[in-house]
Amino acid sequence: GEVHSRVYYIVYDIIEGNTLDEYFRVPRSKSELLQAFTKLSEIVRILHDEMKMRHRDIKADNVLVNKEGEVFLIDFGKARTANDRRFNMLSALNNHKYKHHHPEYNKPKGEGPHTDVYAVAIMLRHYLQKHEDSPGNTALSDWIATACDIDGADHFAKRKATSITTLHTLLSKA
Questions:
Q1: What is d(CA 26, CA 19) in angstroms, rounded to the nearest whole number?
Q2: CA-CA distance, 19 to 65, in Å (whole number)?
């Protein structure tokens, strides 16, 4: 909903589930891992493409998975509409948990949908490594490498072109 123009809110039912870390603490198959990230990528795609918003704080603690395997993105406290220019600096993407921060962290006007995409990609990479597995799909591996800037070359333009829709498609086929 919206109150007083530009004050947005989202109301959830009570979600009985676990954070992504808690969910993956129990041994899960690679298929379950990819299924959870397929669902998360669809949520982020809807947020970006249909709602025209950026979450700006995507991390394992803000992703819940219930007993049925449904995935929920929570904590929209730092979310902004795509056309909100009041905030130019990244404020939420330096997530030390994965020992990697977004390359545009604290750079003026570096924020965009790609910052949420980066957060999803870095989590996917983390869980695949923890699973001691590669994506097994060259296109998915390439997408993760570009989105996460694995080679360290800081390909800002390439990263901006990595879309959540492409990730969703790749995960759906994996």
A1: 12
A2: 6
Q: Which of 81-90, 91-100, 106-115, 155-164 has the lowest mean pLDDT?
A: 91-100
Residue with tokens 């995935």: 71
User: How many CB atoms sit inside 10 A of residue 27's CB?
Assistant: 7
Q: What is the pLDDT of residue 64?
A: 96
Angle at which helices 164-173 and 113-130 cross, to 10°: 30
Q: What are phi and psi of 87, to 5 degrees?
A: -120, 110
Report the percentage of the chain scoring pLDDT > 70. 66
Q: Residue 97: pLDDT above 70?
A: no
Distance CA 137, CA 51 (A): 30
Helix (H, G, I), strand (E, B) or coil at 174: coil
Containing 119, the helix (H) or strand (E) segment is helix 113-130
CA angle at 41 for the pair 35 and 43, rounded to the nearest 5°: 110
Residue 109, C-beta contacts closer than 8 angstroms, at least 6 positions apart: 88
Least Cα distance to 123 among 20, 44, 48 occurs for 20
CA–CA separation, 120 vs 97, rounded Å? 13
80 burial class (0-12, 13-18, 19+ CB within 10 angstroms)?
middle
Cα–chain center distance at 91: 15
